[in-house]
Amino acid sequence: MSSSAAAAAAATPKEDTVSAAKANYKIVADVGDFNKTQSQRPKFYHSKPIEVTQSPNPNWEPMVSNYQLLVSGITPRPIEFLSTVSGSDDDGKFTKNLSPFSYFQVIDHDPPMFIIGFSSHPERVKNTFHNLKETSEVVINTISENMIEAVNATSIDAPYGVSEWEVSGLHEAPTKTVKPSRVQESVFSTEGKVVDIKEFEDHVQPGMSIASLVLVKATRFWVQEDAVNAELSHLDLNKSRPLGQLGGISYGRVTSTFEQLRRRWNEEYPKRGIESVGRVETKD
Asked: How many Å apart are CA 179 and CA 75, to the nearest integer?
C-alpha cells in the first residue's frame, strides 16, 4: 500500500466520526417548508394594541388563604412580646410599644440570633417594624399562660404614637443594653439589636405595607431566678408555662411532655444496621 493510500485509509475513521457528529448536531431545527407554513399564518400588524387577558391561573388562592393555611399548618408557633420604642421627636419624647408576635423564632445560639417576620397588610407598616427601623433596639419577652389576656389586649390595632403598655396590665422593668423596657412578668427576656432588615420590594402590592424580615442579635438575657437551674442552662416548664399560637384564634398549652434520646451513628449502626436505625414504627 502506498503512503498516500495509507494516509487516506487513516483519515477515513476520522471523517466518518465528523460526519456522524454533524448529523447529530441539530442546533438549527428542521422546519420543513417554512415559507409555506408562514404563508398560512395571520399577518403581522405593527400597530395592534396589546390585549389584556386573564392571569395564567385565575383560580389561584389569594394571599389571605395562604395565611389561613400556614398559621393552621405550622403549629404550634412560639409567641413573644416585642418591646420597642420610637425615635425621639424634636422635644426628646418617644413612644413605647408592646406587641405579641408568632412570626418569630430563635435561629442560632452562638451568636444568639432571632428572626422576626412582618407580613404585608393594608396601609402603614406595623409600629414595631417602624420602631426597629428607627432605633434598632428590642426586648423579646416570653409569654406564659397567665398573660394571655395581655396578649389579646396588645394585639389591638392602636394608631402610631399610642403605647400598648397602657392597656396590657403588665409592668415595665429596666434594661441594660437597650432603651426599651422588658416585661417584668416574663420568665425570660432577651435584649437585642437589629443587625439586618430585608424588605421584599418585589412583592409590594397597591395599598399594602411591605413584607419584611428583621434579624436580631441578643445583647443580654434576663431570667426569673426561681425558674432556672443552678447552671443557668434550663428553664422549668412548670414556671414558664409557655403558650403556642395555633390556627385562627386558638392557642395551645403544654400539659404533657416526653423525652427521646438522640442516637449516634457510630454507636447504633454497627449493632442494628441501617434499616433499623432509620425505621419508623407505627402502632394502632
From this structure: 32
Contact between residue 85 and residue 96 where contact means Cβ atoms under 8 Å apart: yes
C-alpha cell at 239: 414556671
* Three-point CA angle 22, 26, 29, nearest 5°: 140
Domain range annotation of the chain: 79-246
* Backbone phi, psi, residue 226, to 5°: -85, 5
Angle at 22 between CA 35 and CA 29, to 5 degrees: 25
pTM higher than 0.85, yes or no?
no
pLDDT in tens, 66-78: 888 888 899 999 9
Run of H or E including 183: strand 182-183
257 vs 237: CA distance, rounded Å: 10
* Residues 191, 164 contacting (CB under 8 angstroms): no
Q: Which residue has the cell 441539530?
A: 26
Alpha-carbon distance of 87 to 106, in angstroms, equals: 26
Q: Does domain 79-246 fall into CATH 2.10.70.10?
A: no
Burial class (CB in 10 A: 0-12, 13-18, 19+), 34: exposed
- Burial (CB count <10 Å: 0-12, 13-18, 19+), residue 263: exposed
